[in-house]
Amino acid sequence: MRLDKRAAFAVPLLIGMSPLAFGQAQPSSNAFNPAISLILNGRYTSYSLDPAGYRLPGFLLEEEAGLPSEGLSLDETELAISANIDDKFYGSVSASIEQTNGETSGDLEEAFFETLALPKGFKIKAGKFLSDIGYLNPIHAHAWDFADAPLAYVAMLNGGYSDTGVQGRWVAPTTLFFEVGAELFSGDTFPGANGADSSGTGAWAMFAHVGGDVGTTSSWRAGLSYQDADANGRVSTLGVEPNIGTAVFTGSSELTIADFVWKWAKNGNPRDRYYVVQAEYLHRKEAGEIEAPPPLPVILTGGYAGKQSGFYVQGVYQFRPRWRVGLRYDRLEASNTVDTELVPLFEDHTPSRESAMVDFSNSEFSRFRLQYNRDDSRPESDDQIVLQYTMSLGAHGAHRF
Amino acid sequence: MKTLLAVTVVALAWSSTPAHAAVAVLACEPEWAALATEIGGTLVSAESATTPEQDPHYIQARPSLIAKVRKAALVVCTGADLEVGWLPLLLRQGGNPAVQPGQPGYLNASDYVEMLEKPASVDRSLGDVHPYGNPHVQMDPRNISKVGAALADRLAMLDAANAATYRQRYQDFASRWQPAVERWTAALAPLKGAQVVTHHKGWVYLESWAGLVEVGNLEPKPGLPPSAAHLAELLNQINSQKVAFIIRSTYEDGKASEWLGARTQVPFVVLPHTVGSVPGTDDLFGMFDTLVKTLVEARK
Q: Best residue in A115, A120, A176 to probe B by mutation, most B CBs within 10 Å?
């Protein structure tokens, strides 16, 4: 820009101004600073099979993985606080409190800051956060369209991958949305484990997203992600019935995810009616050693090479204001090579699940959902019914795409 | 990975070449894009994140909008929490430091006008109320020129080389807008005191300017869809009171207002809430011309 005499006056003025000189009312999430929100979640669940015997044949699940308890239970109660820290940084914390079998436990879901002022589309985030791999992964569970995570997420990401680390991302200056990002993590969380054995940087990931609009009615996003984690003695409950112990895996876990979302609304106005179609395909390779300690009859150690995949496809339709229906299909496949003695660790069964849900939102801040799953995760079918509520108090939630 | 790197490097090189193009203005709503075009002319390229058919509260932070924020030199929005569900997310994801709140590249229209209906207490049992006041400020034409002045200053600051042109174009706009406002005010004078029922609480600035009296809303609470019970109540109220119009905008479903209109003989009117919402509203002058004409004709 050429500086003329008038501009020369304007420049020193600009430099002298405080960064908040331009306008008072920020597009903040709340009249309060910081924005505070509280999410209340609860459910009634019924199973036709014993939830204690839950497993996904062919997959080494995270040690604590399993179905939510039967009957009346509380899901996570989540407290989230976020704000612009100053003109250059934004910070956010969300912590959840969970109560299972009368025991209360707390979990730090996210605690991170990110930059606001890096030039040319760059952004850095550091702390503990949900990884941006996949479509569903960075979305908090209370904002999902179904009461539970897709099977592929349960099997390969323990429902959602978050860890302590750092992320860099870049948004291209193009009309078609394009962004790429890379993440480095401590490697402590599933599918990694004991990151300290990998110098505290046991996992990394990268992702690319592309998206845009088609006319005024439709919009879409497609993504490709890759995650590489060191499993340093990762403990899993054995995927055989009955649960006879644990397996300890040491090796590498490499995951590739392809995701796609398409949204349609008349005139692009989703207030009254809209459709969303969403699908993700996950493919994982694991290689290393498995050790199965007692109480198995003998201590078994041997090589393990896993080639596993899974996908889900779901559609959600808001057919009138406040009412939505949704259908989802899940399927997993595994082809594992295990040394002879360890063969019984893997059952010959292909897990799948069909789900249907209907939900009602009295306002943007309250939602009730009824969901039915015909769950063929195990060789026998499980009829699952979930009645769930999600209430959000405080700061207005974000309308994520 | 190598391809990805190559793409990144190429795109980077491309992004750092100096732009000779017009100042890219991203408006949250069409009226601010139209205002930016009035003031900037060919010096700006203004586009709106929403269309007249879209309720500006219910937008999602779509990939296409993130891409637009990334390239914008100035983001102009209503503010006052109208875009609270999507704008903060877009600004964070857009990777554009120039348009962050507090920077010259971010302008909240509601900072420059007097806000109506600032609630004494904010409680969600009252619906989705906005703590900063009613955000539909564009419906009073006097607010348009106030925001226009701020917008001209901001453009002059961002594109200093053309500062004089922005100021001169604003003077020119104001000199045409002022008499138009007087003309519209005069045309609406006979409607002073008329009682109206509106779909959403989106017309309070129009009412305050034109002296209309709002006696009810089709939405039982702001943001909640009209319920059968509430409509029945409203029907009784309209029958016992002298109501001149039932007003709604283009993005609101017409069934409820048509149902009420048919049972009460009260004319229901679709008023332009922004530029481009109905035929004849290609610019801000056309928007208010059409609005005034629609009201005056419905009264006959």
A: A120
The domain in which residue A350 lies consists of 46-76+116-394
Contacts of A135 (CB under 8 A, 6+ apart): A221, A223, A259, A260, A261, A278, A280
pLDDT at A29 over 60: no
Question: Å from A138 to nearest chain B CA?
Answer: 13
pLDDT digits (tens, 9 = 90+) for A132-185: 999 999 999 999 999 999 999 999 999 999 999 999 999 999 999 999 999 999
Domain total of chain A: 1
Within a domain: residue A16? Answer: no
Q: Which residues are A376's β-sheet partners?
A: A352
Mean per-residue pLDDT over chain A, rounded: 88
Of A31, A117, A177, the CB nearest to B67: A177
What pLDDT digit, counting tens, does each position of A197-253 carry? Answer: 999 999 999 999 999 999 999 999 999 999 999 999 999 877 555 556 788 999 999
Domain ranges of chain B: 21-178, 183-299
| Cα B88 from Cα B98, distance rounded (Å) | 14
Type of residue numbered B104: P
**Other beta carbons less than 10 A from residue B118's beta carbon:** 14
Q: Which CATH superfamily is domain B183-299 in?
A: Nitrogenase molybdenum iron protein domain (3.40.50.1980)
A210/B106 Cβ within 8 A: no
Asked if the structure places residue A399 within a domain, the reply is no
Q: Chain B within 8 Å of A322 (Cβ-Cβ)?
A: yes
Topology match between the domains B21-178 and B183-299:
yes
In this prediction, residue A98 carries a pLDDT of 87
Q: Is B95 left (phi over 0), alpha (psi -120 to 50) or beta?
A: left
CA distance A321 to chain B (A): 7
Domain containing A226 — which CATH number? Answer: 2.40.160
**ipTM score here?**
0.89
- Looking at domain B21-178, does it have CATH number 3.40.50.1980? yes
Of A10, A114, A216, the CB nearest to B157: A10
